[in-house]
Amino acid sequence: MTAVKNSIEVGTCPKVHGTIHVPGDKSISHRVVMLSAISSGISTVRGFLASDDCINSLAAIEALGCHVTRSGSELSIKGVGSELAEPHKRLDLGNSGTGMRLIAGLLAGQNFSCELTGDKSLRSRPMDRIQVPLERMGAKVELLGKNNSAPIRITGSALKGIEYSLPMASAQVKSCILLASLFASGRTLVVEPKPTRDHTERMLGLLGLPVTIDGLSIEIEGQGSEGLSLDARSWDVPGDFSSAAYWITLAAATEGAELTVDRVGLNPRRTALLNVLRRMGADIETSSADELHWEPVGSVDVRGKRLQGTEVGGDEIPNLIDELPLVAVAGALADGKTVIRDAAELRVKESDRIRSTATNLSAMGVAVEELSDGLVVTGGPGIKGGVELDSFGDHRVAMSMAILGMRAEEPISIIDGDCAGSSYPGFWDDVQRMTSDGE
Length: 439
Ligand code: S3P
Description:
Blueprint: E1 3-4, E2 7-10, E3 17-20, H1 26-37, E4 40-46, H2 52-63, E5 67-71, E6 74-80, E7 91-92, H3 97-107, E8 113-117, H4 128-137, E9 140-143, E10 152-155, E11 159-160, E12 163-165, H5 171-181, E13 184-191, H6 199-206, E14 211-214, E15 217-223, E16 234-236, H7 241-252, E17 258-265, H8 272-279, E18 283-288, E19 297-303, E20 311-312, H9 324-333, E21 336-340, H10 353-363, E22 367-371, E23 374-379, E24 388-390, H11 395-406, E25 412-415, H12 427-437
Parallel strand pairs: 3-17, 4-16, 7-8, 11-13, 12-13, 20-21, 24-25
Antiparallel strand pairs: 1-2, 2-25, 4-6, 5-6, 8-10, 9-10, 13-15, 14-15, 17-19, 18-19, 21-23, 22-23
This protein binds shikimate-3-phosphate.
Shikimate-3-phosphate (S3P) is lined by residues 27, 30, 98, 170-172, 175, 196-197, 321-322, 345.
């Protein structure tokens, strides 16, 4: 693997074996940053994901008055309690929708105005989905970009609790409202259309907050900003299932592969990919590593098989939303058709992931059809490779295509693959290790 200009070459990987350890969970790392910022005292964090996205969130809370020290994946954050300091500049959340939407929830309950911005991709993503509920709670949220996007100016206020049925299945929006509800007076009830990742609810429960979950409803009793008091604590972040997913998929689709991913988060709201790969014929076992951890954590053992196409849709979608480009890759390597539906949210991720995945699969010679809310991929043996793919600046597209490239007959290259650093620093080193081990 060599880096030429901004293009990264990915060699083929005939043999997949060994044990891999992936960096910390991105969603949990973001939430740890947000909750530590509004806690009183020093929170300590082990296993923090030191990726570009999470580091931007750390810089944002520093600008809001927190004191942060970091050594690799260990952090200490001196929080400021419920009253954040007014920042002297716009907060730049880089590429991260999670960073922007979560911090907006905290800012909605403050007594100052603050602007949030991000890179070109983030400035093209819909922010009216947080504007509507935050304004109903009493904040002023101005969308200064085109088509309801960032920059955002948030003018905080004394918030009141609301009842809100989410129009889309989005853990980011749910979490934004839940964070704002901590500063609100009265009850907030959020109802999801489908179950999404529940890290925020778990963490609020750990902090001793009155959160009640009943099916798709989450209720929290706010005490108003003056009543909000969170004690700092220590957080231990498990490995990111979404990062593990690249290796799990590579191994699942490689006959004869034997791979273990250790100490990774196995929250069932994140691991629907395992069920999909099993349906496709993969042999996957999980074992629990730590019964006492506040998130399910364990290892995943994968033995590769020839895979068959499958259908993916409905309630499964939010629980593998970030893995859908990989499902398409698995489909390209499987026999028959793989159909992904109900996934229109993919169009508003870091790139339009339906379009970017379809473009790359078809450049690889795979038969693929774009649907308004998904993809139909017809797989089979003999992915040729020897082409240059485009990450479209999207970390998950870059990494998913690298996995397909590793199963191709000829090396491929990926333009602008550095964006993998948004969520998985060290990904390209792991690719190199895997491809050179396989020689
Ligand atoms: C995330 C939720 C998902 C996911 C994103 C991280 C989170 O987004 O795609 O990578 O940390 O809450 P949506 O909830 O908007 O689908």
